[in-house]
Write a structure and sequence with these properties.
It is a single chain. By secondary structure, this protein is mainly α. It contains 13 helices and no strands. The C terminus is likely disordered.
């Protein structure tokens, strides 16, 4: 009787808290409306619902769930299955955590591997299938969440809502009861991460980083050729797929291959090993065939090279003999050529010496003739130069004489007489007028015009005191012609700049 299902009693009209029930509301409505057909329909509906609830409650599955919840022990098949799977999953995760031990295997350099080598090997080899499956599901869920869910936006939204509620509750509490609501839950000591936990966490991070660093180096330096080839194929396929797939899709494919490729190999290990063995045998046979063909072609090539070497050796010997004969003939020809060259050189030297003597004699004769001609020309030139000098001296003397005569004539014409007047009709200065000229009666102030020898007592000057003479080229017929001086325009200036300038004309005192 203890296992008998409980019976559902009559539903009361009012609950213990005086809240009207469905039946009480229905009876009240019937009393208000007063319709008996509606009351019968409602009663039929209530009885059908009551029977359906009793049937569902009396079902064995419902009884198992009720017993499990009420008694706390798993006696039903579903509960037993759930409990068993939960225990197995927990045990597998515990085994996966316990597998983090440093393996005995070492790298090719003798370095020890990290405990993550054992962990990932245990995870990807499906030794704990529930733990591996859950890990794969979590990774895939993370990829889809990162792709489709605005996780970052939700994070900030959760932060501002939480902080807003906390601020509002604290402010409301302080305004209402003068005490913050949130601050009342503040612990006496804030939580801190122990140093041991941080060191353990940093140690795990170090081991994880070194795991990837060691594996990358083992692949790069071909410690395991199959792993290097597999990495090459993966990189090549990824390079081709990245042009068509997004990053999240490529990541999903890579994670799926990484988790399921070992599972496929484990479930079909015999078949895959057999195929690998067959492929190895085929490759070995092909390698042997290629090696045999290479040896065959190498042998033929060696024989061909030997035959060509024999032919070339015979040809080389013939060439050497021909070269020796050619060398002998060349030496004889060179000897004959040297003798002929010496004889020709001797004859050429003799001819050259004879030509040199003839040339020396001709040169000496030409030198004597040239010296005689040069001496005769020098004498003629000297005579011509002397005659030219005499002619020039005579012309110069005549020019000087004419110049002196003309200058004396002009000086006499322009010299004033004793009365202070000029002998010519040209007007001159009136020395008898006061303040018109120098005082000639003073001692050493000028010429003595009362002297009868006035014109002969003073030397001549090129220009008179007040009336400068005017000269023409016809006044000096024997004077050499003088080219006009640049910047001199009048004849007087040209004469003053010539070689005879300043030698004519009486000298007057001012």
């Amino acid at each position: 009787m203890e296992n008998a299902p409980p019976q559902l009693g009559n539903i009361p009209q009012y609950s213990e808290m005086n809240i009207p029930t469905l039946q009480s509301q229905a009876s009240d409505a019937n009393n208000v409306n007063g319709n008996p057909s509606l009351q019968n329909a409602k009663d039929s509906m209530m009885s059908n619902a009551q029977s359906a609830m009793n049937t569902a409650k009396n079902h064995p599955l419902t009884q198992n769930v009720v017993d499990t919840v009420s008694n706390g022990d798993c006696k039903g098949p579903v509960a037993e299955t759930v409990k068993d799977q939960r225990a197995k999953t927990t045990a597998e995760f515990r085994n996966l955590a316990d597998s983090r031990t440093q393996p005995n295997e070492r790298a090719a350099t003798g370095q020890p591997l990290t405990h993550y080598h054992s962990l990932f090997y245990n995870l990807l080899s499906w030794e704990n299938p529930r733990a591996t499956g859950i890990s794969y599901g979590l990774v895939v869920a993370f990829i889809f969440a990162a792709r489709y869910l605005p996780v970052l936006r939700w994070t900030f939204k959760t932060l501002y809502i939480s902080l807003g509620l906390i601020s509002a509750a604290e402010l409301t509490g302080k305004l209402a009861v003068s005490q913050g609501i949130v601050s009342s839950f503040r612990p006496r000591k804030y939580y801190t991460i122990p140093r041991q936990s941080l060191e353990s966490m940093l140690g795990d991070v170090e081991q994880l980083i070194n795991f990837f660093v060691i594996e990358i180096q083992r692949i790069l330096f071909a410690e395991n050729l199959m792993k290097t080839i597999t990495a090459f194929a993966t990189a090549l396929i990824s390079y081709g797929l990245i042009n068509f797939l997004p990053l999240w899709g490529l990541s999903l494919i890579a994670v799926s291959i990484m988790f399921f490729a070992p599972l496929i190999y484990i479930n079909n290990k015999e078949l895959i090993d057999e195929q690998i063995q067959n492929m190895s045998q085929i490759l070995n046979r092909q390698a042997h065939q290629v090696k045999g063909l290479a040896e065959h072609h190498t042998a033929r090539a060696t024989e061909t090279v030997k035959a060509y070497a024999g032919d070339y050796s015979a040809k080389a010997q013939n060439y050497i003999g021909s070269a020796k004969n050619s060398a002998k003939n060349t030496a004889q020809n060179a000897k004959d050529t040297a003798q002929n060259t010496a004889q020709n050189a001797k004859v050429t030297a003799q001819n050259t010496a004879q030509n040199a003597r003839d040339t020396a004699q001709n040169t000496a004769q030409s030198a004597r003739d040239t010296a005689q001609n040069t001496a005769q020309n020098a004498r003629d030139t000297a005579q011509n130069t002397a005659q030219s000098a005499r002619d020039t001296a005579q012309n110069t003397a005549h020019s000087v004489q004419d110049t002196t005569q003309y200058a004396a004539k002009r000086a006499r014409e322009e010299t004033p007489d004793f009365t202070g007047n000029y002998s010519t009709g040209n007007s001159g200065p009136n020395y008898s007028t006061s303040n018109t000229g120098p005082n000639y009666s003073a001692p050493n102030t000028g010429a003595d015009y009362s002297s009868p020898n006035y014109g002969a007592d003073y030397p001549l000057r090129s220009e008179p005191a007040y009336l400068p003479p005017s000269y023409n080229s016809s006044d000096f017929p024997h004077a050499p012609k003088q080219e006009p001086t640049a910047g001199v325009m009048s004849h007087d200036e040209q004469y003053a700049q010539s070689q005879f300038g300043g030698q004519a004309g009486p000298m007057h005192s001012y």
